[in-house]
Amino acid sequence: MRYVYLEKDNLGKFIDLLKKDRKVVGPVRKENQFVFAEIDSAEDLVLEYRPTILPPKKYFFPQKETLGSFKMGAVRMDKTAIDIEPTVIFAAHTCDIDGMECLEVVFYNDPADPYYKKRRKAITVIGYECMAPCDDCATCVTMDTHKPKAGYDIMITDIGERYILHINSQQGDELIDDNPIFKKDDESRIKSILKEVQKNKLSKFDAKLKADFRDLQGIFKKSFKSGVWEDVGKKCVSCGNCTAVCPTCYCFDVHDSVELDMSGGERKRVWDSCQLEEFAEVAGGENFREERSSRQKHRYYRKFDYPLDKYNKFFCTGCGRCTRTCMAGISLIETVNNLTKENKNV
Amino acid sequence: MCNCGKSSLSRTVEVEPLYSPMEGTIIRTVNMTDNEKFFEIELEGGRELGNLPGQFVQLSIFGIGEAPISVSSSPTKKNKNTFEICVRKAGVFTAALHGLSEGDKIGVRGPFGKPFPIDDLKGNDLIMVAGGLGIVPLRSLINFVIDKRRDFGEVTILLGCKQPKDRLFTEEIESWQRSTDINYACTVDRADPEWKGNVGVITTLIPGVDIDVNRTYAVVVGPPIMYKFVIQELVKKEMPDKQIILSLERRMKCGLGKCGHCQINGKYVCQDGPTFTYAEIKGLEEAL
């Protein structure tokens, strides 16, 4: 069973089915933005949404994670007990699924991170395909993340009168089982309908980046001395918003928090940001990325150059969050297009 | 829905902490200067650290935190069950470390990082240059070379520091000075009345060294500003980039290539370094 239909009226039943033995989180409205949050029923969901404030990474790489607890004066950490709840991330966009795949590569890279692994294992990903661009900040077309490819258990595509579900894992298969709300039909027929709808949607998506994704790393390789970084640095206020909302940023700090009675405490890792001034500082005060321009450059290179050499993967998913959240109006599209333009002039 | 309390679906799983330190005991300390303290540390159960020259450990004091510290001892030293460090009081962690004394426990993770390329160095002449605190990590290599003296050609040690009272490992250095099979020179930026040696920055010692570039490696450890000038002098002597070895300092939080703090462009100092050839980092803007 690879493809099934779901009537739109049955979406509620689908959510109820998932909720039987799992927590379900999905996109919900928060003032004029969207967030992933636990839902009670399908009515809480907003399926047509701009990317949420934070990407789903918060569910497997939480902002604060206890690495272990300790007694004061001891040297070794006790085993850590973490609470894990089987969770469905419902209606994740394909860009965010790509972001999950990036983090997967990092945290599974030797030595694999046990905290991440335990959390990730408990998560089922049900995607929801974007049939139209969300806004002008997203660059998913260039990053080739606007189409479902991999990394999900089930993908939902709205074909107008109903949904097609692509089941992509054993876990997805078990969820669907032979519940009557999912209608089977000739597989190849469903597949060809899906392909047609997916082909037609592409005309609605414009590439906002002027470079082809195959040329992006080459452009970055030649742009290290570019004046564009000075321009970006002049605008940046070093707030770190861009890295907090990025689905592929994973830098962290480690610090100890101690009980008030000083009997013990916990060693925690906390999201950190390479945009903050002290990030690359060492003892004695030497700072290897003292300028905002060099810190912004570092962030871009960690998306478009370094990870390609290390993991063979772009770490920009095109979700547009960094641009949307920037208080100083730094736009990824503008930055990358300026670099592209410079390279054409050379 | 009420989100207080745990849901019935939640289950608790145990995780073996990836970052859990081993237990170390401080068995000897020496106050080397007003600001630098030496520690000899023994691991639990007489376990060997298993370090090679140039590597570092993450030391941990619960309640304070963790910090990357260079190992200063060579694995060739007689007592294999201990290792040595020397730490300058420079921040919260190192201040707490200075507060520890013999018998106190300390957490140890590691060793981490790529050691000095011993196999490449073997059979060749060596110029080892240390500025200021750079002597601490470089000492692991110097003692390694002394203990395996026949594996190496001509050995020259050049040391520099700000003033005579900043010198570390003075007794050991005197023994290097006395060896007939080591060329040794030292300089200070500012002399005091008792100082009879060279005065001037460390680069002034390099022109006097006879270098056969076909069979010489230079190993340089010191503050970033020193690298720029020492490398210039070595390059003037036509030393090839791949025969100049450096050790870089960064503030690693994990030592496992994840936390991002030690990244120099695409390289992670905790895994790709901390030792690098000059050829490896030459084009990297953020390296020095």
| Most extensive protein-chain contact, per-chain counts | A-B, 65 and 54 residues
Kindly report the oligomeric state of this protein.
heterodimer
Shape field of chain A: globular
What's the overall geometry of chain B?
A: globular
Distance between the termini of chain A: 53 Å
Furnish the topology, listing elements before pairings.
The complex is a heterodimer of chains A (346) and B (288).
Chain A: E1 3-7, H1 11-19, E2 23-30, E3 33-38, E4 64-71, E5 80-84, E6 87-92, H2 94-108, H3 114-121, E7 123-128, H4 140-143, E8 154-158, E9 162-167, H5 170-176, E10 182-183, H6 187-201, H7 213-221, H8 228-235, H9 241-245, E11 252-258, E12 264-271, H10 292-304, H11 306-311, H12 321-325, H13 332-345
Chain B: E1 11-15, E2 22-31, E3 36-43, E4 56-61, E5 65-70, E6 82-88, H1 92-98, E7 105-112, H2 118-121, E8 125-131, H3 135-147, E9 155-161, H4 170-178, E10 183-188, E11 198-199, E12 216-221, H5 224-236, E13 244-247, E14 263-264, E15 267-268, H6 269-272, E16 275-277, H7 278-281
Parallel strand pairs in B: 8-9, 8-12, 9-10, 10-11, 12-13
Antiparallel strand pairs in B: 2-3, 2-7, 3-6, 4-5, 4-7, 13-16, 14-15
